[in-house]
């Protein structure tokens, strides 16, 4: 277990947005492999195959803008580099996940990242995705490691002191994932004396520590480690956004369930370098344009929508 002071991204792996052919060297592979073992086990038990993730051929494609010019340092450096570098997650099914065999990233947030790139004039073959954990998002934007970040990133005032946010483009809510046979947890009020796993630097972890002091909060770098620990009885619950937990529950529905209702609002934003207002407002415009032309809904339906919840209306963008 690591505490929330951890760590460099051991799992950082860079890949373009186009389906690649090479094997990644990413440290997320063992976690994904572990999940695959769980899936196989679940599959054998119930006799039903696990739900399918988004297939590249089922995903929408986005019209790439031409002649884009922005008075933005972030945009200019991406232009001269010839590609965008986009931070995201690698182990959140339906939201942002990396296929361990191909290195291909998929999920709703990955689609949002591609829409933004298209509006900036970059096709999927000119996006390099980088896996960045929750705790390292702000630093990666501050030191220019990524041009923007799309990965279940809640907009809040503390983070706004460090980075800028376009959006929101979706509103999630903190929830709880438990073992299916454990009937003792049905909401955050039942967490006293329980071991609750989350990720360092995340708002759900901070909320448990601040508002539910009778729970024992443990933090790792990624939610998939928490899920492994839940299945192997080392923790009693995993807490983070419902979007993320639904993806894990859908993978092993005979072992895991969401307990109770969401108990926070997590407005998802696209993280950008704080001083680059032009870039932030360009992404706000891009979000609205892709909501209006139907791309947002098509992307939702082919990714997060696979977990069974119909697309909500997108939230209004907050141009600050
Ligand atoms: N949305 C929450 C956050 O930004 C939890 C998900 C995550 O860790 O990415 O902290």
From TrEMBL:
Pfam family of the protein (one):
SBP_bac_3
Could you state one GO cellular component term attached to this entry?
A: extracellular region
Keyword Signal assigned:
yes
Segment Disordered: which positions? 1-25
Q: Record's InterPro entries?
A: Bact_solute-bind_prot3 (IPR051455), Iontro_rcpt_C (IPR001320), SBP_3_CS (IPR018313), Solute-binding_3/MltF_N (IPR001638)
Which family does this protein fall into? Belongs to the bacterial solute-binding protein 3 family.
Which protein is depicted?
ABC transporter substrate-binding protein
Skewed-composition ranges (Low complexity): 1-19
- Do you know which CDD domains this protein is assigned to? PBP2_GluB (cd13690)
GO biological process terms on file: amino acid transport
Q: Which superkingdom, per the lineage?
A: Bacteria
Task: Please name the SMART domains in this protein's record.
Answer: PBPb (SM00062), PBPe (SM00079)
What keywords does the record list, in alphabetical order? Signal, Transport
Named from the GO MF annotations, one term is:
ligand-gated monoatomic ion channel activity
Q: Where is the Solute-binding protein family 3/N-terminal domain?
A: 83-307
Residue span(s) of domain Ionotropic glutamate receptor C-terminal: 83-298
């Amino acid at each position: 277990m690591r505490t929330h002071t951890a760590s460099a991204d051991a799992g950082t792996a860079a890949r373009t947005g186009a389906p690649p052919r090479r094997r990644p060297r990413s440290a997320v592979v063992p976690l994904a492999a572990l999940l695959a073992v769980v899936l196989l086990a679940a599959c054998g038990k119930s006799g039903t195959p696990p739900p399918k993730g988004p297939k590249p051929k089922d995903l929408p494609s986005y019209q790439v803008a031409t002649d884009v010019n922005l008075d933005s340092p972030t945009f200019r450096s991406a232009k001269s580099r010839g590609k965008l570098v986009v931070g995201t997650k690698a182990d959140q099914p339906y939201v942002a996940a990396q296929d361990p065999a191909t290195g291909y990233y998929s999920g709703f947030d990955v689609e949002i990242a591609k829409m933004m790139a298209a509006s900036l004039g970059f096709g999927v073959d000119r996006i390099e995705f980088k896996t960045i954990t929750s705790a390292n998002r702000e630093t990666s934007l501050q030191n220019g490691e990524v041009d923007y970040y799309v990965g279940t990133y809640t907009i809040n005032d503390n983070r706004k002191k460090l980075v800028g946010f376009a959006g929101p483009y979706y509103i999630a809510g903190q929830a709880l994932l438990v073992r299916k046979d454990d009937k003792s947890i049905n909401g955050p009020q039942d967490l006293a004396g329980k071991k609750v796993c989350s990720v360092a630097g995340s708002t759900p972890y901070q909320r448990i520590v601040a508002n539910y002091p009778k729970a024992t909060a443990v933090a790792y770098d990624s939610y998939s480690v928490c899920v492994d620990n839940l299945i192997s009885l080392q923790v009693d619950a995993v807490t983070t956004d419902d979007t993320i937990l639904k993806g894990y529950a859908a993978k092993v529905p005979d072992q895991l369930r969401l307990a109770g209702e969401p108990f926070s609002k997590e407005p998802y934003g696209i993280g950008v370098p704080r001083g680059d207002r032009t870039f932030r407002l360009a992404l706000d415009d891009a979000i609205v344009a892709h909501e209006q032309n139907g791309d947002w809904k098509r992307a939702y339906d082919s990714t997060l929508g696979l977990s069974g919840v119909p697309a909500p209306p997108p939230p209004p963008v907050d141009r600050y």
